[in-house]
Amino acid sequence: MCSFSILLKGYYFRDDHLLDCMNKREENRILLTSDYLPPSDGGVEQVVQKLALHLVDEGFTVGIFTLDDGSRDFELEDVPDISFYTASALDLTDTIGLQSMFSVSALREFRNVLREFQPDIVHAHNRFFYTSVLAALYSIRADYKLVTTLHLGDIGMISGLGGVAAKTFEQTVSQFVISRSEQVICVSAAAEPIAQSLGAKRTAVVRNAVDINEFSPSQTNGKSLLYIGRFVHNNGIQDLLTALPLILDSHPDAEIHLVGSGPLGDKVRKSIQSSGLSESVTIYDYVDDISEMYDLASVLCRPSYSEGLPLTMLEAMASGVPPVVTAIAGVPEVVTDHETGILLEPGNPDEVAQAIIELFDDAELRTRLSKNARDYITENLTWEQRTDKVIRIYSQVVTTD
């Protein structure tokens, strides 16, 4: 688990009215929380890290409190403009099959951070994260407003014991987190009714964004399929594995790149080996510069069962890589079938295979989708646009009695 703490001092707004509202208070301090931070490869942690860096660029003072299982060196730890704090934690992801951390020491450390920084707003990320629960619990006694971002949409497609646990958690603990929040930010319109059903007082849709300078198109002439994400059932990696033999039967010259790790990691490797696909498939546990992977790809596949608005899909679109994705949560709000990507129903490996084969067969279609996808991102989902929207929400929260 990871907790993100952001302290906001000073004010930068493009709207004079909002600036005046914020200036009515002597100081505004915002603590962001999230259970994971890069180099962990999930989308939420990437979004939180980008938000922190963009808030710094806008003149805010930023601090980060995160949970540390001792397995990684955090990318933001040495950033001079960010104050960085950790608490030791136990990662339970491999045990329960869903991304999860637990920390006893975080109870004390989070309290210490609250005492030191005295935030006006605590901004929690993900209704299932441990640090979001901490933020909600401490909001009962502490003097701050709680903002929570809903990164995940409907979890109804998550099966097995993990699905049962997630649904039980959502109807109890997550409901408490959301009902304690003064404002809930939803990464898609599809997530907004979920927030409202869990007791959200106020909601706003602020979609995820992409750094369009970091992720930009490059010329890829070959047939190269890319998957980026944790190796968990929720992300549909098992369906892609089932589809790979069909894809490679049709296009034996294709290259497959799988970037990720997780509880299904051993199963992924064994499946590739037993299917005789080792010469065509390369697995990367971690990549220092993920933008380089999009430079290799001509198609991205993300056949998820549950999402909010997948960051990898947006990065691929910004990079001019057509996405083959399941039509869940906020995905259809961004991807128009056969215009900016290809939409699938979840849980259908044959559809996955046929969509990828179609794109490998039709270079003209790939080129058209590539251009349309890039244009959509640059016009609608830049980080500058997203940061402005988040800042506006902060200003409204601190001026609301």
UniProtKB/TrEMBL annotation:
The keyword Transferase applies. This is Glycosyltransferase family 1 protein. The lineage of its organism: Archaea, Methanobacteriati, Methanobacteriota, Stenosarchaea group, Halobacteria. Keywords: Transferase. Residues 216-375 form the Glycosyl transferase family domain. GO terms for molecular function: glycosyltransferase activity. PANTHER family: SULFOQUINOVOSYL TRANSFERASE SQD2 (PTHR45947:SF3). Residues 42-213 form the Glycosyltransferase subfamily 4-like N-terminal domain. The keyword Cell inner membrane does not apply. Gene3D superfamilies: Glycogen Phosphorylase B. It comes from the Archaea.
